[in-house]
């Protein structure tokens, strides 16, 4: 859309130049006609392709152009309210129910197979300014996210998309929730600068000024909420809000989901905190009680820095160090104090929750890390994971797929996350090198096992202050130099062959029991995927 506006506005400016002449300083730019077109040729679209820009360049060379620039996106939040129009590229601060909105929602609800009365949905919007707490399908909720419900990265991507087709500045605010931390604000700026190469960015933290143009109702503002890049906004109870703010969860913000994969692939920066919050949000979405949500939130609370790399250090082939270590972690006085302060006992974490943490089939842990890790590397997108999430049901106290098609998609994607993400040779090679370094530091006394109860930042400080700093700094994508299935004295990567064989609602069998192709794929995966791989030093 913006590429079309950009091209057509410049065509119109050329037509004006034919009638009134080019802008006065154009004579000084005749040797740089490409400045008017070349930046946009690099990002062609169906509406404005490279040939369109070449043709425009020829016209500018012949007759000039009336305007030095033709496109800019000015501030539109308050002015759009005054004019009663849409807010340009800004998302709405809150939703308003009118006849046009009702007509659109009704049509989308029918297309998604939702035929219930929408009165409760409209009441939810009137009360909260949002439809995220309604029972509409996730695929609809994601479309109607408000400014505070959109993850910061989505705001940035919107700005970056328009930046490629705009001459001047873009006014677009990244709206952050009231309790956003300094680190979260810093991460937005870092992403804008390093990842998206943006011209500029504006950040506003909600309620950071005593008077601001737009606010939510007191009721909505006082309700604790988390906003996730997959599930959107989720209201949480005061008890869960207290857990989220505790040192137990703060620690997980400094533990990467996939070990040191981020040193090889900068896209893999997901933390255990994000995954834990996601598991909790997913459990709530599927009907979990408050206690079950807490169990999901704290299921990884004992994870050590660099996650499953500790299993390589101590030779745990089943990657279960953190589970065996959990009892010891929870027995520590500071941990028990934090749990008590949040109104939780150890027995709360040990009882129940089985329906959302089924050992063999679908559970919220596996669902969340599968989607989150595939999404991080561009292997799954919103339509696919919404299809999966919208078709998971709690049936007979177990999570099942509504139909065979969803079960096949889930089955395939779970194999894919293992084969394409977790078994990435470059990541595995770097993991072996890092594991060898950790063992060396343990043997020489620079590290102790209790150090693995700290954060990754703490461990990295120890490593950087050790005699092996250079060895650590050399670890990265270039660490991979080939592999084999023979040891030759090298330490192995221990692979855990994870899979999901989904149950299907209305069937008395799992997918592989009724689908021969899925059964064959699973057998090939289990029989042909090596569980030990040795990487060349």
Write a compact overview of the structure shown.
It is built from 27 helices and nine strands. By secondary structure, the chain is mostly helical.
Structure, explained:
The structure is a single chain. The chain is mainly alpha-helical and 537 residues long. Among the domains are: 2-63, no CATH class; 228-537, Hypothetical protein af1432 (Orthogonal Bundle), CATH 1.10.3210.10. Helix content is 50%, strand content 6%. It has 27 helices and nine strands. The chain has helices spanning 2-20, 34-41, 50-63, 77-83, 99-111, 119-128, 138-141, 152-163, 182-195, 218-222, 238-244, 247-252, 261-264, 272-285, 290-297, 309-314, 321-330, 333-341, 346-350, 364-376, 382-390, 404-422, 425-443, 456-464, 469-473, 511-514, 516-528; strands at 173-176, 202-205, 225-228, 232-235, 392-395, 398-401, 483-484, 492-494, 532-535. The longest helix has 19 residues, at 2-20. Residues 214-221 have low confidence and may be disordered.
